[in-house]
From TrEMBL:
The protein's annotated pathway: Quinol/quinone metabolism; 1,4-dihydroxy-2-naphthoate biosynthesis; 1,4-dihydroxy-2-naphthoate from chorismate: step 3/7; Quinol/quinone metabolism; menaquinone biosynthesis
Catalyzed reactions: 5-enolpyruvoyl-6-hydroxy-2-succinyl-cyclohex-3-ene-1-carboxylate = (1R,6R)-6-hydroxy-2-succinyl-cyclohexa-2,4-diene-1-carboxylate + pyruvate
Function: Catalyzes a proton abstraction reaction that results in 2,5-elimination of pyruvate from 2-succinyl-5-enolpyruvyl-6-hydroxy-3-cyclohexene-1-carboxylate (SEPHCHC) and the formation of 2-succinyl-6-hydroxy-2,4-cyclohexadiene-1-carboxylate (SHCHC).
UniProt enzyme class: lyase
Domain AB hydrolase-1: 5-231
EC number: 4.2.99.20
Biological process annotations from GO: menaquinone biosynthetic process
Superkingdom of the source species: Bacteria
Protein name: Putative 2-succinyl-6-hydroxy-2,4-cyclohexadiene-1-carboxylate synthase
Species, as recorded: Ilumatobacter coccineus (strain NBRC 103263 / KCTC 29153 / YM16-304)
Gene this protein is translated from: menH
Record InterPro entries: AB_hydrolase_1, AB_hydrolase_fold, SHCHC_synthase_MenH
Similarity comment text for this entry: Belongs to the AB hydrolase superfamily. MenH family.
A molecular-function term among this protein's GO annotations: 2-succinyl-6-hydroxy-2,4-cyclohexadiene-1-carboxylate synthase activity
């Protein structure tokens, strides 16, 4: 069994190291952590979310796909574009997009402003500022993986925002019923926004369950890695 791992914005494939260790200790599996376009070894890759889904599936093949935040959105696109390759889905702190066109346009403008900031200030300053986002309020400094995030490039991160940001994404809520593979939706106890989005995802997917990870905010796999792997292993065993 193969488990493919898709990281969030500003992270790289290395962000999954602890999860990979725990998974391979618990189940007979091969893990494939992938650098998404604009990040890590794929910093020079420029593509939208559909292209990012192709990039992910090309690297991992037939697998259970685990995606966090931006990686969750890529994994959703992968399930729609490559249904024979995605055997199961695990979506962590994810969304199917922004419904309202005006809100989507506002988010796109905000992402463009952030992309320009990334291009003009030292990367370390941006990463430090990014990690002060309220989404990461429960993320301890030792789990924030600052050094790994600094492996990215300003140009790559800016392109990721412009091409794969939520503001540019076609909402997928109306297409969730097309995804029939077993799906586990994970959200943090203290992440009210993504708990609500997780409930909506679970309601819209044909075969899904929602699991709320206690004592965690948005980055459940970094804040509570053992509990996250417990949930994934239990899901794999039952599905």
């Amino acid at each position: 069994m193969t488990v493919a791992l898709a990281h969030g914005f500003t992270q790289t494939a290395r962000s999954w190291h602890r999860i990979e260790e725990l998974l391979t200790d618990r189940v007979d599996t091969e893990t494939v952590a992938v650098d998404l376009p604009g990040h890590g070894a794929a910093s020079a890759v420029r593509t939208d979310l559909w292209g990012a889904a192709d990039h992910l599936v090309d690297a991992a093949g037939t697998a259970t796909y685990v995606g966090y935040s931006m990686g969750g959105r890529v994994a959703l696109h992968a399930a729609l574009a490559h249904p024979t390759k995605v055997r199961r889905l695990v979506l962590i702190g994810a969304t199917a997009g922004i419904d309202d066109p005006a809100e989507r346009a506002a988010r796109r403008a905000a992402d463009e402003q952030l992309a320009r900031r990334i291009e003009t200030e030292p990367l370390g300053d941006f990463i430090d500022s990014w990690l002060t986002n309220p989404l990461f309020a429960g993320l301890p400094a030792e789990a924030a993986q600052r050094d790994d995030r600094l492996r990215n490039t300003p140009a790559g991160l800016a392109s990721s925002l412009r091409l794969c940001g939520t503001g540019t994404q076609e909402p997928l809520w109306q297409r969730l019923g097309e995804i029939t593979v077993p799906t586990l939706v994970l959200a943090g106890e203290h992440d009210a926004k993504f708990r609500a989005l997780g409930e909506r995802l679970a309601d819209g997917l044909a075969d899904s369950r929602l699991c709320v990870i206690g004592g965690s905010g948005h980055s459940v796999h970094l804040e509570q890695p053992e509990a996250t792997v417990d949930a994934i292993v239990g899901f794999i065993g039952r599905s």
